[in-house]
UniProtKB/TrEMBL annotation:
Pfam families on file: GntR (PF00392), UTRA (PF07702)
Domain HTH gntR-type: 8-76
Name by which UniProt lists this protein: Transcriptional regulator, GntR family
GO molecular function annotations of the record: DNA binding; DNA-binding transcription factor activity
Biological processes, Gene Ontology terms: negative regulation of DNA-templated transcription
SMART domains, alphabetized: HTH_GNTR, UTRA
Length: 242
């Protein structure tokens, strides 16, 4: 019977071994790691397999390869944080969603341009309310480029995460998600939906998803109740990838 260790790709084990040396301090920032030939001999594997392991380390940000010189250990970039919106918000409690409305806004070039949908005037808007238990915690409004012949199912509209919704609805492949976080005062309508006072500040999270050619495919604006929503982020060293 094959053990679990035997099922793990060799290049992954190589990358994990080097990761352990970096995390233990055996390999320090700026250290030169062994060459492809040395690693191949040490692990009894081909250079191609070694390159796969090196590529995994480089992708995770723990080494940097300099052409003609080799691969060097780099310190994990702890000032770069990753926000997981799916697991942020309400202390890992499951959210409940209520679809408030879906509209097709035709021939509104001003709105399209404001969203970055240059030259396109038909926009689909999706609005939903997010609950923790019986308390509303956030209002999310999504704006998508209208795509003829690409219907949206009600279950997708109500439950799908914003990136998933964009990926399913657009013909172009989404490759980048830019986020801006700010603070604003609740409008009367927002305060009513969130069962809060008009004067309360709110956390506003705006996401814009782009295609490979830098074309905006979708925009999401989430307005969060200041006392019921919490945003979490973590650094993303290799331990998150291996």
């Amino acid at each position: 019977m094959r053990s679990r260790a035997n099922l793990i790709p060799v290049y992954y084990r190589l990358a994990d071994d080097i990761k352990q040396q970096i995390e233990s301090g055996a390999l320090k920032d700026g250290d030169l790691i062994p060459t492809e030939a040395q690693l191949g001999e040490q692990y009894g594997i081909s250079r191609m397999t070694v390159r796969q392991g090196i590529a995994l380390l480089a992708e995770a940000g723990l080494i940097e390869t300099v052409k003609g010189k080799g691969s060097f250990v780099t310190r994990p970039r702890l000032n770069q944080l990753v926000i997981d919106l799916k697991n942020s918000g309400v202390n890992n409690q499951e959210l409940r969603y209520k679809l408030l409305g879906v509209n097709l806004i035709r021939n509104n070039r001003e709105l399209a341009n404001e969203l970055g949908f240059t030259g396109e005037s038909n926009v689909i808007t999706v609005k939903r309310l997010m609950f923790k238990g019986n308390q509303p915690v956030a209002i999310e409004e999504k704006f998508l480029r209208y795509q003829k012949g690409k219907p949206l199912l009600e279950t997708q509209l109500e439950y799908a995460d914003f990136p998933d919704l964009v990926a399913k609805h657009q013909k172009s492949v989404p490759v980048r998600n830019d986020m801006a976080i700010s603070v604003a005062t609740l409008s009367h309508e927002q305060a009513k939906l969130l069962e809060a006072d008009d004067i309360l500040p709110a956390l506003v999270i705006k996401q814009v998803i782009y295609s490979k050619d830098d074309k905006p495919l979708g925009v999401s604006v989430m307005v969060c109740h200041k006392d019921r929503f919490e945003l979490k982020a973590t650094s993303y060293p290799i331990s998150g990838r291996l």
